[in-house]
Amino acid sequence: MTLKSTLADMDKAHLIHPLTHPRHFEHHPPRIIVEGQGVMVRDTEGKEYIDGFSGLWCMAVGHSHPKILEAVGEQMKKLSYFTSFHGSSSPPSIELAAKLTSMFDPSYNLTRAWFTCGGSETNETNIKLARFYWAVQGRSEKCKIVSRRYSYHGMGLATTAATGIFPFHFNIDPLPEGFVKVAAPYCYQCELDLSYPGCDLACVKEAEETILEEGPETIAAFMAEPVIGSGGVIPPPEDYFPRIREICDKHDILLILDEVITGFGRTGRMFAHEHWGGIRPDMLSLAKGISSGHIPLGASVVRGDIYDTIGERQDERLPLMHGFTYMNHPVACAAGLANIEVIEQEGLVRKAAENGAYLLERLTALKKYDSVGDVRGMGMLAAIELVADKETKMPMQPENAAPDLLVDLCWDKGLFIRSSTMETVCIAPALIMDRATIDRMVDVIDRSIPEMEERLLKGPARQA
Ligand SMILES: Cc1ncc(COP(=O)(O)O)c(C=O)c1O
User: Fold this and answer.
1) Is 440 strand, coil or helix?
2) What is the number of structural domains in the chain?
3) 16 within domain boundaries
4) pTM of the model
5) 155 and 261 together in one domain
6) Ligand 1 pocket residue status of 381, Cβ below 6 Å
7) 261 Cβ inside 6 Å of ligand 1
């Protein structure tokens, strides 16, 4: 028995894989990765792959960065865990809160942070904080969360309800109430059947109309990813978020920006909301790039006066009734501190902006293929949307077969990228990836698209 076959058998027999059909392994062998270094990973047979997806949009500084490994090791030796409940803490969590809150425009007053194990916990935390904030002011009816179709906010029950990719809602009823959906600025396939800029951002108007129908006095927060990620990498038009901010201000609604994917340089700015000056988030959700995936970590960052209001109004006998065992974890926070230092010292945000523009240019050339309907992106975050027909923009059949097949063909050639349920393949390399590797990555995609087309557009099943 080889290491590969032993592990593969154990995997198939015992391990549950997220977002994987339980019968997946009837047709596919497990992909068991044993090593990662920089932008490369290696499997049990020693085959190398370019990691074109940063694990799961998370390895900003690449795999196994020595400075993070050292920081984690040192912290593990000093203090591996202590609770932060009931007023306790540890130096790394204090230092990371201070560092993180210094990274935003001071006029935004984002002075408070606490740390979770990832994006879902962070969004659940921010949804609860938004509700606490209104409830302590005697406005507990102001509890609904507005989010967009195509959005992804996590796997908790509230965050699933906030998610606008509807297959995530199947078979888990009843979902919590109080989650309202509005249109996304998905210009390539506009659900309102309009074109930007002639539409004058009809999706924003639709959002405001929905808010008015629901009653602004019932809405706690508008939750949005600056660039929709899992829903197919959808950057918004320039004027979209300024208009959303205006609507939130007008109707006294908190803006929760979910920068779980876009934070820490991914889009070519440290945080994506910096692209559209003046978009002050009231709360921010961060994860993934905060520790480059080396250890689970997320952060909820909150306007100081929101926290103060809860402090002033909350019944003194009742603490802030929220917390996870691993909140403010010292080892995870030490990893976060080291990771941010690497991003800053190695100039990775500028690098992501420059190399991201190159990546987008190279990917855009793939529009030469019949099946490549749209290519879009921002920084080291990009997607290719696949269609059966560029005129009608109809997807290839069966649903999701095209992106799944393209991802498999790339994998066979030594490249990892990911499909999304929205007929796209998503590309999100580590911010350290150089242009030569970007070239190798795009070349693999370039060679794989005709094979995918051959099977799905021109193959025997298609002709029959
Ligand atoms: C925008 C966004 N929010 C939240 C989450 C959930 O994060 P996690 O998987 O760490 O719980 C994700 C995960 O991909 C995400 O992309």
Assistant:
1) helix
2) 2
3) no
4) 0.97
5) yes
6) no
7) yes
Evaluated on CA atoms 98, 242, 260, 426, the torsion sign reads negative
Cα 288 to Cα 298: distance, rounded to the nearest angstrom: 7
Of 120, 228, 271, the one to substitute when testing ligand 1's pocket (max ligand atoms within 8 A of C-beta) is 120
The predicted structure's pLDDT at residue 460:
53
Q: Tell the residue number behind the tokens 């038009």, with chain if given.
A: 237
Distance set, CA 88 to CA 133, 163, 302, 318, 328 (Å) = 23, 34, 20, 17, 10
Question: Could you tell me if 87 and 124 lie in one domain?
Answer: yes
**3-state SS assignment for residue 154:** coil
Residue 140, SS3?
Answer: coil
Q: Which residues of the chain register pLDDT less than 50?
A: 461-464
Q: What is the pLDDT of residue 202?
A: 98
Do 165 and 306 fall within a single domain? Answer: yes
Q: Is residue 7 part of a domain?
A: no
* pLDDT (0 to 100) of residue 463: 43
Residue 187 sits in the same domain as residue 297? yes
The answer to whether the CB of 291 falls within 8 A of the CB of 57 is no
How many Å apart are CA 220 and CA 63, to the nearest integer? 38
Domain end residue (candidates: 310, 326, 345): 345
CATH number of the domain encompassing residue 421: 3.90.1150.10
> Which residue segment(s) compose the domain that 202 sits in?
67-345
Q: Quick check: CB of 154 below 6 Å from ligand 1?
A: yes
pLDDT of residue 1: 62
